[in-house]
């Protein structure tokens, strides 16, 4: 009986222990002086998974910049049922994949029209039409870059100008 109680106690202690989280930092270099940094976490056990999605992410936040001045922020903790939220990340290669049958690859508080980020609001979208910002429910065309430019994951926080070297990811 004592052995079983110790075993049960050990199991409960393991279950109560905090889960280690993998941290990935983002830096996106758009057109016209627009950039974005961000941070996301997900269970460390998924670092060897082929894909991590928005359903796996435990925290996610992005900050948009124009000429290195903050122009908007979004945190997944603020999402609602109406929020556009699609994320795909390949931890083995540290790349956010830019492929998909639906033509929408990443929707971080911005839909395919890049017009639903809220007022005030900020969002990012990457799809078959390009990668771009939404500010206050408005598509920022001048931020748009080609749809297939890789979005990489980094091991360390990045500067707003995206000038730090890639530490996790490498372009395919």
UniProtKB/TrEMBL annotation:
Signal peptide feature range: 1-21
Superkingdom to which the source organism belongs: Bacteria
Keywords: Signal
Identification of the protein by name: Uncharacterized protein
